[in-house]
Amino acid sequence: MDRNEPEAEALPPPGYAEVRIVAATPDAARMVADVLRHCFAGDEQRSYPAPGGGTRLHLTVDTAHTAEPARSWLATSRPPSGTGPHSQEP
């Protein structure tokens, strides 16, 4: 098999997506998975070692059923407008 060809794998059922996160540390991978869980319902993540000593997480998300509105989570994670270091500039 040519290493440049994508592996043949089964597609998830309609309405679901398989997500793979590769990161240098388990904490970084978990942070990304947590953000996805704010947006989509999903199953438990599965963790595997990644080449080079990193971490690979796999999770399945249900794209038909949101966990909570992504927009509201993004809005609440940002500081209020005009409170940064440049709020006095015209």
Description of the structure:
The protein has 90 residues and is an alpha+beta fold. It has a domain of 49 residues. It is 24% helix and 30% strand. It has 2 helices and 4 strands. Strands 1, 2, 3 and 4 form a 4-stranded antiparallel sheet that branches. A hairpin with a 5-residue loop joins strand 3 and strand 4. The longest helix is centred in the middle third of the chain and has 14 residues. The relative contact order is 0.20. The mean pLDDT is 75.
The secondary-structure element order is: EHEEEH
As a percent range, the share of helical residues equals 10-25%
What is the CA-based Rg, rounded?
18 Å
What's the total number of strands?
4
The largest pleated sheet is described as: 4 strands, antiparallel
Between the first and last Cα atoms, what is the distance in angstroms? 61 Å
Give me the number of helical elements. 2
The parts where pLDDT drops under 50 for at least 5 residues are none
Q: Report the structural category.
A: alpha+beta
Q: How much strand content do the residues show?
A: 25-35%
Mean pLDDT: 75
Shape: flat
Region (Disordered): 65-90
Biased composition (Polar residues): 74-90
